[in-house]
Amino acid sequence: MAKLWFKFQRYFRRKPVRFFTFLVLYLTAGSLVFLHSGFVGQPAISQNQANPAAGAPAEGAELPFLGDLHLGRGFRDTGEVASIARRYGPWFKGKDGSERAKLGDYGGGAWSRALKGRVVREKEEERAKYIGCYLDDTQSRALRGVSFFDYKKMTVFRCQDNCAERGYLYAGLEFGAECYCGHKIQATNVSEAECDMECKGERGSLCGGANRLSVYRLQLAQESARRYGSAVFRGCFRRPDNLSLALPVTAAMPNMSVDKCVDLCTEKEYPLAALAGTACHCGFPTTRFPLHEREDEQLCAQKCSAEEFESCGTPSYFIVYQTQVQDNRCMDRRFLPAKSKQLIALASFPGAGNTWARHLIELATGFYTGSYYFDGSLYNKGFKGERDHWRSGRTICIKTHESGQKEIEAFDAAILLIRNPYKALMAEFNRKYGGHIGFAAHAHWKGKEWPEFVRNYAPWWATHTLDWLKFGKKVLVVHFEDLKQDLFVQLGRMVSLLGVAVREDRLLCVESQKDGNFKRSGLRKLEYDPYTADMQKTISAYIKVVDAALKGRNLTGVPDDYYPR
């Protein structure tokens, strides 16, 4: 079913006239149905209505019969007003105890608008706690970390997400469009009614006011890294052999602090700040100082002279932070100078990290990647090969989610990216209902959409890999989990298959900015496991089939964390 949907999309992209004709017919039919229902009332639903069939595996794939998932499709007639009352709590009821019928009926005045915004925020932004409305002054900011503005699309979550990604404890919104981050609030609390400006990109939510901040305390720090403000903690490392070549800038700092060293290296435009007791060193990650062999942090546990709770390293063991300075050694990208004689696929199941892998490949090789499809949002984010036809020969490899013999045999070689199906399915579900870096709403996870999605897409996860192993020519298998854990080695393998010379300094540059613009933050993770026992049983069987297929070709099987669940 899922594969048919992709082919359906591709067909209409190439035949826009037919697409618009189909759209007009669809809208006409919908209007007739709407008019009809207005006269005859609600249609009855048969008690014996059959559930839709599960998505079928690709033709030729040898998958075991796993039975029906038996995922319920029952509907509860809760009513719109009752649903709203549950969402906004008991105060939604009127003075007579009856539930108000209109969402906007909160009474008049700024206080009511502020109360509405606060309740919505507390319900929807569950991973951040609303603190209150605070005074802000342009001469002395309440939150003194990084800041950014967006006068068209600012939302509460976007501000929280940006501050959480940088390791800050607080996020504040002002003027409906300004976001400020900080580790502590340096201002006084004011009345809630003074934070009365609606967010520019989110109706119904409040984003501060004139010189007033709506402040949130962020409950979750970024899981992938420890941070100090905007600097990312890289670890404790042994002093490099040739210090002046490895870290070319050195400054004595008797009153050493993390802030001072990070600020110095940022000012000098270096991405690494290395603290060595009373000396600060700045530089780039290179083969002389690759940051691959971390030492025990106890070897660096010398307190900073100007900072009681932070370690500043020793002359022999350095504490290293990554600054916000961009390492430009791997940022140049272009189309291939001559048309490529072979088409290389970057193949994956949706949600397996294909966009992230494209980002890594472009940085590592200096050449744009292409796509079997066209995604305008990816093009606008810098994937300039997105607009080229996939057979143009101007890109280093081609993104594809296709499976099936005909589609696979169109390529001369392939990098096959495989990810844990439990993670891949959730990632694709988030993309489908929330965009490339957004999240599906809880209503989608709890409703009929998630069970139907798993029923249709889980078999495809297995048949996608089986088809590429069976029909692909010169297939390099890369596990997403291995790429995350050992990027330097795995990305080097991928670059070699693409026929580009592997440059170690360039790969080290990629390591320092591996996330790109398409990484979801950990701020909105589900608090429960969305997979039922039946789903887990079915997916585990698919994992075993894929594992056996990989080992049957003398390849490494799936990583251990795929199962048991």
UniProtKB/TrEMBL annotation:
Entry keyword Repeat: yes
InterPro entries: P-loop_NTPase, Sialate-O-sulfotransferase, WSC_carb-bd
Keywords: Repeat
SUPFAM superfamilies: P-loop containing nucleoside triphosphate hydrolases
Occurrences of domain WSC (ranges): 127-219, 230-324
GTP-binding found in the keyword field: no
A GO-annotated cellular component: Golgi membrane
Example GO molecular function: sulfotransferase activity
Pfam families to which the protein is assigned, alphabetical: WSC
Family from the record: Belongs to the WSCD family.
Name of the protein: WSC domain containing 2
Organism: Rhinolophus ferrumequinum
Upper lineage: Eukaryota, Metazoa, Chordata, Craniata, Vertebrata
